Amino acid sequence: MAGWIESPLLQDSNKPIAILEIKKMLGKLITVVVVVMLTIAGFGCKKKPAPPAAPGQPAAPKTEVKSQAEYNEMAKKQITKDNMQTELDKVEKEVQQEGLR
After folding, report:
1. Which 3-state string (H, E, C) describes the chain?
2. How high is the pLDDT of residue 48?
3. What is the pLDDT of residues 10-33, one digit of tens each?
4. From residue 71, how far is each of 25, 97, 99 by CA, in Å?
5. How far apart are the first and last CA of the chain?
6. Nearest to 22 by CA among 1, 7, 42
7. Which of 20, 35, 43, 76 is 20 to 30 Å from 29 by CA-CA measure?
8. Does pLDDT of 35 surpass 90?
9. φ and ψ at residue 43, rounded to 5 degrees
10. Picking from 7-11, 16-20, 83-87, 94-98, which range would have the lowest pLDDT averaged per residue?
11. What residues have CB less than 8 Å from 57, skipping those under 6 apart?
């Protein structure tokens, strides 16, 4: 076993104390690794906030999303028996134009 471990701690004639010292060093190393990992996980994973708009530039406008009930109500007002075919043609044209894009 001579030459296998070159540590001065193990070359001591009092081997049980040397093994205890190695265990202490490993314990400290493990503690440091755990603390570093927790620090990285705690502080390194946060998202950065979006920068504020430059002075003089308006903020992005918020879009209003309509509910299904609002769309149904709007359709009832816009589509009648008299203009049903015209409205259907408009929708078909829009769908065809979007399909070409």
Report:
1. CCCCCCCCCCCCCCHHHHHHHHHHHHHHHHHHHHHHHHHHHHHCCCCCCCCCCCCCCCCCCCCCCCCHHHHHHHHHHHCCCCCHHHHHHHHHHHHHHHHHC
2. 72
3. 555 556 677 888 889 999 999 999
4. 69, 22, 23
5. 76
6. 7
7. 43
8. yes
9. -105, -25
10. 7-11
11. none
Q: Is 98 exposed, middle or buried (0-12, 13-18, 19+ CB in 10 A)?
A: exposed
What are the distances in angstroms from CA 62 to CA 25, 66, 67, 71, 86?
A: 58, 13, 16, 19, 32
CA 27 – CA 40 distance, rounded (Å): 20
Question: Are the beta carbons of 48 and 39 closer than 8 angstroms?
Answer: no
Distance (Å, whole) CA 77 – CA 92: 19
Q: Can you tell me the distance from the alpha carbon of 20 to that of 28, in angstroms, rounded to the nearest whole number? A: 12
Structure tokens at 91: 């929708």
